[in-house]
Amino acid sequence: MIQDELLKALANVKTLNEIEQIRIQYLGRKGIITNLAKETDFSKLSPEEKKNFGQKLNQLKNFATDQIQETLNRLTAQNTATPQVHRLIDLTVSGSACSLGALHPISMVQMELEEIFEGMGFTVLDSPEAETEFNNFESINIPSDHPARDMQDTFWLKNDMVLRTHTSSNQVRALKRFGAPFRGIFPGRCFRYESIDPSHENTFYQCEGLMVDRDISVANLIGVMKTLLSEVFKRDVKVRLRPGFFPFVEPGFELDLNCLFCGGSGCPTCGDGWIELIPCGLTHPKVLEFGGINPNEFSGFAFGLGLTRLAMMKYGIRDIRYFNSGDVRFYEQFAPII
Ligand code: PHE
Q1: 218 Cα–ligand 1 center, Å
Q2: Per-residue DSSP letters for 33-59?
Q3: How remote is the C-alpha of 114 from its chain's centroid?
Q4: How far is Cα 306 from Cα 313, in angstroms, rounded to an integer?
């Protein structure tokens, strides 16, 4: 009976302290087993019975001591084993996902264009966003009284500086620096003081291109534009040329891209089925002169590709306002999938 009770009590212990309590309860000075000997009147027992009792009591003591010691061992083993389990590394558990950053879609398109143009022998030039009035207007045949200045609403800075309204601001700087023959592109951010809607931004990206050499004609211009667009969209795209007016080209054109969203039937992004994508033309002789180049010897073409519009077409982005939104959910969609 005592054994059963002891085993039952030991089965439930959880702490070393509880074991000690049980030890005291059974084997302590006033413990159950100790009391058995104290409570027995040995004088009434025969020598045979005394011997028997003594043996039984010893067995009981030993049993209790062993059981208590075993329980103690079990509990200590558990306690030391637990932290070891935590320290183990389970190589089969999948790691926690880390999120990768993404390039801005404009950066991706810009890098792609740079590669395509470099393949055609063009140099890639960086140029300032804050420009002189001369570079942004005068040097490309837009004098201060010219009505074309009203075509582009300008952010004016101090000292007759402007936030460039287009990347054409770098044309004469490049010609002065490199002379002719020249082929280069100038990608960069431009600014116009205008209201924002799904297809207009006051901050957007262009990629200017300028090629000056002997006998450059419209055929060269069309050839380069076609190579460019088929490489960007990896397929044949429909384009159309309309006459366009820009003071720094003569003749000037608007190269429109057939809308890739609606296939030309008209949608909120394009309006009438065409996206105005590449204004272009043959370089005006005055621009060459400003760049120190003899227009009788050299001719050229220029284009001002709307990088932002191109990114919209390429990635199916229907609202230009996403680009500058700072909305991480938008940018995350361009993160590489690993
Ligand atoms: N700079 C012009 C614009 O932003 C585009 C353009 C560039 C047109 C080169 C012709 C040649 O509107």
Answers
A1: 16
A2: HHHHHHHS-GGGS-HHHHHHHHHHHHH
A3: 21
A4: 11
Give the domain 105-332 fold: BirA Bifunctional Protein; domain 2 (3.30.930)
Strand ranges inside 41-170, DSSP E: 123-124, 130-132, 161-163
Q: Which amino acid belongs to residue 169?
A: S
- Residue 83: the pLDDT is 52
pLDDT tens-digit map of 25-64: 988 888 888 888 888 888 888 888 888 888 988 898 999 9
> Contact at 8 Å (CB) between 289 and 295?
yes
Q: Where are the beta strands (DSSP E) in 91-181?
A: 123-124, 130-132, 161-163
pLDDT tens digits along 185-215: 999 999 999 899 998 999 999 999 999 999 9
249-258 and 274-283 beta bridge pairing: antiparallel
Structure tokens at 75: 């509990």
CA atoms of 41 and 193, how far apart (whole Å): 113
What is residue 86's predicted lDDT score, i.e. its pLDDT? 53
Name the residue with the closest Cα to ligand 1, atom 4: 166
Residues with CB under 6 A from ligand 1: 166, 168, 246, 249, 252, 279-281, 302-304
Q: Residue 40 class from Cβ within 10 Å (0-12 exposed, 13-18 middle, 19+ buried)?
A: middle
What distance in Å separates the CA atoms of residue 29 and residue 25, rounded to the nearest whole number? 9
Question: Ligand 1, closest atom to CA 304?
Answer: 7
